[in-house]
Amino acid sequence: MTAGIYVRYSPGADREKTSTVESQIAMCRQLASTKNTIVDEKHIYVDQSISGASVQNRPQFQLMVEAISSNNFPPVLITKDTSRLFRNEQEAGYHESWIWQQGVEIRYVVGQNDNPNKDDNVWLPGSIGHVVAEFNRRKNAKITFAHQQMNA
């Protein structure tokens, strides 16, 4: 089985070392190796220094969606966690469901790995995770804006 990888990094204060693009890719590769899955090097999508506020502003995410839509994507998508894919809970609900409907299994390094379209016990905690990711994005944006005002 083959897999594609999506990673996103948005710089900011006190970012964890596990948030770098390189470490996210390494974690995804490690998960793939434990599942006897080969990473398709043509399907590694990296949005560097881009906020997760919207999927519309992420060119690599859009390329990945195009590949999935045209059936030109491996059967598995690996990413670190839901916040790398989504930081907007409305977009998360739509796109996560859509990706699964296209026959692409999403595997998170951290988090649940089952289809939320088929199991409400997966859907509920996943939905809560999307809300928490958006909450953290909003909170961090306000902090960043306050720092920018102080520095101006």
Structural overview:
It contains five helices and four strands, in the order βαβαβααβα. With 152 residues, it is an alpha/beta fold. The chain has one domain (2-151): Resolvase, N-terminal catalytic domain (Rossmann fold), CATH 3.40.50. Strand 1 (2-9), helix 1 and strand 2 form a beta-alpha-beta unit. The protein is globular and about 50 Å long. It starts with a strand and ends with a helix.
What is the element string, with H for helices and E for strands?
Answer: EHEHEHHEH
State the CATH class: Alpha Beta
Number of helices: 5
CATH topology: Rossmann fold
Rounded to the nearest angstrom, the radius of gyration is: 15 Å
Low-confidence regions: none
- Structure classification: alpha/beta
| Major sheet: arrangement of strands | 2-1-3-4
- Share of β-strand residues: 15-25%
Q: How many E-type strands? A: 4
Cα(first) to Cα(last) distance is 52 Å
Biggest sheet character: 4 strands, parallel
- The total tally of domains equals 1
The average pLDDT value, as a whole number, equals: 84
In short:
Helices cover about 50% and strands about 20% of the residues. The chain is built from five helices and four strands, in the order E-H-E-H-E-H-H-E-H.
